[in-house]
Amino acid sequence: MALEAQDWAAVWLTLKLAATVTVLLLCVGTPLAWWLARTRSRLRGVVSALVAMPLVLPPTVLGFYLLVLMGPNGPVGGLTQALGLGLLPFTFQGLVLGSLIYSMPFVVQPIQNAIEAIGARPLEVAATLRARPWDSFWTVVVPLARPGFLTAAVLGFAHTVGEFGVVLMIGGNIPGQTRVVSVQIFDRVEAFEYAHAHWLAGSMVAFSFLVLLILYTVNPDARRRAA
Amino acid sequence: MSPTALELRVRHRLPGFELDVDLTLPARGVSVLFGHSGSGKTTLLRCVAGLERAASARIAVHGEVWQDEHGGFVPAWQRPLGYVFQEASLFAHLDVRRNLAYGMRRALGRADAGEIEAMAERFGIAALLARRPDKLSGGERQRVAIARALLTRPRLLLMDEPLSALDAARKQEILPYLERLHDALEIPVLYVTHQIEEAARLADHLVLMEQGRVRAVGPLEEALARVDLPLAQDHEAGVVLRARVEAHEPDWHLTRLGFAGGTLHVSQRALEAGAPVRVRVLARDVSVMLEDSAASSIQNRFACTVAGISAATDPAHALVSLEASGTRLFARVTRRAVTQLGLAPGMAVWAQVKAVALLD
Lengths: 227, 360
Prior knowledge:
The complex is a heterodimer of chains A (227) and B (360).
Chain A: H1 5-38, H2 43-56, H3 59-70, H4 75-82, H5 92-118, H6 121-128, H7 133-144, H8 146-161, H9 165-170, H10 181-190, H11 194-218, H12 222-226
Helix pairs in contact in A: 1-5, 1-8, 2-5, 5-8, 6-7, 8-11, 10-11
Chain B: E1 4-14, E2 17-26, E3 30-34, H1 41-49, E4 56-61, E5 64-67, E6 81-84, H2 96-108, H3 113-122, H4 138-150, E7 156-160, H5 168-184, E8 189-193, H6 196-202, E9 205-210, E10 213-219, H7 220-224, E11 238-249, E12 254-259, E13 262-267, E14 276-282, E15 286-289, E16 300-311, E17 317-324, E18 327-334, H8 335-341, E19 348-353, E20 357-358
Parallel strand pairs in B: 3-8, 3-9, 6-7, 7-8
Antiparallel strand pairs in B: 1-2, 1-4, 4-5, 9-10, 11-12, 11-14, 12-13, 14-20, 15-19, 16-17, 16-19, 17-18
Helix pairs in contact in B: 2-4, 4-5
């Protein structure tokens, strides 16, 4: 029997969520990591702290504030309503937004560390060889920081797969919409369906182990970079 | 093309340091920016390259303005220059061939394999084209970096202590390439160093920098022969003489050089008679005698006049300036010797030169 349709739906939704969040985070996190690695602004400390907050906050706290912000009386909720997008809580889009914030440090920090490790010199060299800034970003920074980007993508993906508290607070438990694997496991346990819970939970353990194993084998200094 | 092709007027303030320079340098040849660390020579070079934006500057190369007083600033990647950094600066993710092609493709719009190979040949790196930078020695890396810069066909070459990260043997491996470059290159070179030997071997013009300012500027021979400059106090202090090959003495494996003040013998070199050469004579290798004496193993001797005597940093020593028919040289002797020989300006003496280094 292994997994039933509703379990597969949760798995599929989880992968879709994690993939969407990873892609978006690489787009948003890279410029942010770049800025953090290069800036001499006094805001650097504040922004670093904000980015790292999800590492220490209980996910329920994060989820609670997101719920309030995205709710009908919150500023984000007001904005999305004004734009005709409706309200985000208890939707897939809401989950994406919450996960973006929740997994942000896992993407930003490895990229930031990698860019810091490269230093300014290769970019100066590229400039004296007539490379425009955008050109040198793609031909120098990205290849040299590749291990950092790889670590960021894998950790961002895996961490999103593993979230529970934020999902529960802002996503609830709507099949096909917001019911991801971690929530599905919770449901199965609540219903005393331990066999199903075992299959799902065991898959998660295997998945997580495999991802980290690949990461540390392909990219031995990943742990240092992620730290 | 005007003979003063480099116009550098730069004012720049960094924490605890101010650069204030106003220089015009010739369109050809190597201008060495010489000075101790912290004298501002690297900062000046970075301002010329556009890697650092000077607070106020006018930088013009061959009449092309790269920065002006009205806020005009051409970004580094739009300046047709080559820059060789102090330490190896090759792209670690590209092999030698791709490193060489990187700048050429962007500067000329194409990467010509034939031209890359010819340049690699010239710098003795043709066999290394498929290697990654981490599989090269320090000297090889720096040669790749120089070749890479030249392949962009720069109108100005900037070199920031390109030998300082190398040990003595590697330096000797690269210097001949730089000297050849010096002879063949049509463009001006700004070369930063704090090694007097590099300056003597490579410079046409010397810019002596001190605490962010230009202390002296002029042709190499003149600058080295000035006793009032700190160059004269260097352990490696010495002058550079222009000479010509007069004849070879194959029996003795010697080559005789003639200069304005006399002749010098050096180990035989494969040079044609009449060829111009530059020789370096260190102050510590010159001694002074009151009269000529054939009873010496040192045979490079010639008549001079004492032009002056000045103090050396070492209180036991004095620096005697000598003039031999218009050629200036230094002898570093003890103060005791000055007194015992009664040396004084205007005296006719003999200089005895123990060692001569042929630069070309």
